[in-house]
Amino acid sequence: MSDPEARHEGGAVVEVLPDVSGIDRAFAYAVPEELVGIIRVGCMVRVVLNGRRVRGWVVAEAGELPPGIDLRQVSELVSLGPPQAVVELARWACGVTRDACARC
What we know:
GIY-YIG endonuclease
């Protein structure tokens, strides 16, 4: 388990959608070295958000962090979650449903 207050420069970055009501955007977090290659889209993780440790879903891999940028690290891997194909299917279904409702 990583230090939730740790900050990270360089390395892998993921976009995490917090499992918190009222928050509908993803935030960038650095992936600790020991979890690189393990954390992927669909995983549930713990992150620090506004001073609280919360669960969140990895929704995208953001690639490498440019030098000089300082991000908080993912605190912990909670579960591996669904495969990326299932996450993409859910996004597609959400878009189709939203479009159909907009026409109502």
